[in-house]
Structure formats: structure tokens, C-alpha cells
Design brief:
This protein is an alpha+beta fold. The chain has four helices and five strands. Strand 1 and strand 2 form a beta hairpin. The longest helix is centred in the C-terminal third of the chain and has 11 residues. It is elongated.
Length: about 110
């Protein structure tokens, strides 16, 4: 969940991981305000960063959804792994459709031989 201030600037993020990490091992008052549990300095992408930057970060496995912000830290979107996969599939359909199921394995003979 993205938490913004009154002007749409990102104030923090609350994830499933944030909640579950706090539930393990100690009693937690679930009526606490969101801001007491959220990450106040989440990783973000600037609107000018590249798809390559997003792939590098999301490939670490640490992040699944990353907010996109402008110069004023206003939220303009969110990028997810599935968004990048869809973009690449639409942008490079021939390259993807012509890949063997396991690109590192090459057939020794053509089909039907």
C-alpha cells in the first residue's frame, strides 16, 4: 500500500512483509496507525529511470512492486515484474517466440530428422 501526503507525495509504503515481520514473535496491536508500521524510506524509481534499471532491481527478488515518482516525489505510477514482462513480450515478440524452451539447449538435428 502506498501512503501519500495531501499533495500526492510518497510518505511511505506498507507491504505484506512489513506486517508479517511485525506479527512474528511478539504481540501486535493491529489498531495501530499505518504510519507506525510503514517503511518511510521505500525504494522508488524516478520517472526518468530506464526499464533496465527496473529489471536490475526487481531481479534481486527483494522488491515486487516499486513506486514511480516525479521530481517532487509525487506518485505517478508503480512498476511490477509482470508489467516489465508484458512490455518486453509486446516490444520483442519475434525474438521471444523464436527462442527454444531452454535457450542454452540447442537441437543437434532439425525437427523430424
Amino acid at each position: 500500500m502506498l501512503v501519500t501526503d495531501g499533495q500526492g507525495r510518497l510518505a511511505g509504503v506498507l507491504t505484506e512483509r512489513d506486517i508479517f515481520a511485525r506479527l512474528v514473535g511478539e504481540p501486535v496491536d493491529l489498531r495501530r496507525p499505518v504510519e507506525t508500521m510503514m517503511n518511510r524510506e521505500p525504494k522508488t524509481f524516478h520517472i526518468d529511470e530506464t526499464v533496465h534499471d527496473a529489471i536490475k532491481l526487481l531481479a534481486t527478488g527483494v522488491y515486487r512492486n516499486v513506486p514511480i515518482v516525479d521530481d517532487d516525489r509525487r506518485v505517478v505510477g508503480i512498476v511490477r515484474q509482470v508489467d516489465i514482462l508484458k512490455y518486453l513480450a509486446e516490444a520483442f515478440p519475434e525474438e521471444l517466440l523464436n527462442l527454444p524452451p531452454r535457450p542454452h539447449q540447442r537441437m543437434k538435428e532439425s525437427e523430424g530428422a
